[in-house]
Amino acid sequence: MVDVMRRRGLTAAAALLCGVLALTSCGGGDDSNGAERTEQSEADQAAEDANTSSAVISITPEDAAEGVGINDDVAVEVEEGTLDEVVLTSTEAGTEVPGTISEDQTSWRPDEQLDRATRYELSVQASDAEGREAHQVATFTTIAPENSFIGYFTPEDGAEVGVGMPVSLNFDQEITNRAAVQQAVTVTASSGQEVVGHWFDGTRLDFRPESYWEAGTTVNVSLDFDGVEGAPGITGVQDRDFSFTVGRAQISTVDVEAKQMEVVRDGEPLRTLPISAGSEETPTYNGQMVISEKYEETRMDGATVGFTDDDGEGEYDIPDVPHAMRLSTSGTFVHGNYWASDSTFGSANTSHGCVGLNDEQGADDPDQDGAWFFEESLIGDVVVVINSPDELIAPDNGLNGWNMSWDDWVAGSAI
């Protein structure tokens, strides 16, 4: 009985050993199939490497970046290759931002300032020396208005202006770090005149010389606000240069009592015009006023400047006032007047504070006084009002800082 059990045990052990040998033989005895797979994988990798461009694209800023600056914070570079195409698109508007690839085709920059609080997509294609293409895409969002500031400036770039035109900056955020912001502004005049800045409040900074600009002067302005902290958490995003030229020197003096305006150009009398200024109830401001806007025709509604009747309606509403030129923010204009009789001009002051000149409805008669003065005037020309029963106009009511002494003007500088 013992022998039988032993033989059965030996038989089972032999069977098990055979099974192990069989498994070993099936699993690893012949490695030809594995070698074929390895060779195939290496061949695929070699083929892939052969088709891969060696051009390396770098995009600034990083993909998905937020709070990106709008001036010099976006750029594309490539190594071991050249740029074929770069497309920067505003995803909200679907508009493409123009840009320029460098002459050696290794870098790209946008041509213009970007918009704030806008999402952009930047798509780049480059090629290496073998013509193999590389592609890269990045998206980013520019800085939000609540975290940044810009300065809206007057006059416009390239403008020809009168001798009274200041450089006026109006900021879209309250500036508390006034010295740093003012130091980021450079104003130079070809006449050599000293130019000083004056803060009227936290959002307005004007620059002017002690006396009017000299005729023929070129004024260059540089705004280097990009990265400047204007207030806690508020950073500048503007990097802009502009310039303007000063034309002939034209100063027009309105004598309210005499009801006349004498126009003097380059020191020589040009013409004397009969006018109608503000009435005793609504007199015209005294002082030096700068023409800040010109309209061949415009609507004037008394309700917009506080002249209303008992029902709250404007005391006047004229839809087609001809040849209007703004002298103050509060609504003082020198303009043509077609609704008063010809005899009014030079004999009676009847307006709500404006200086009126005889004119025709339609603004199409060049022989009228209003048309003549409009054509002969530049934005930035000075109109001086004297002998009015009203007070002196406030220096910040329009571009009228000339109504402040030079000492007071300089005292308003932050540097």
Automatic annotation (TrEMBL):
Keywords: Acyltransferase, Cell membrane, Cell shape, Cell wall biogenesis/degradation, Lipoprotein, Membrane, Palmitate, Peptidoglycan synthesis, Signal, Transferase. Coiled coil: none annotated. GO terms for biological process: cell wall organization; peptidoglycan-protein cross-linking; regulation of cell shape. Residues 1-27 form the signal peptide. Pfam families: Big_10 (PF17964), YkuD (PF03734). The active site is at residues 335, 354. The keyword Transferase applies. This is L,D-TPase catalytic domain-containing protein. It comes from Streptomyces triticirhizae.
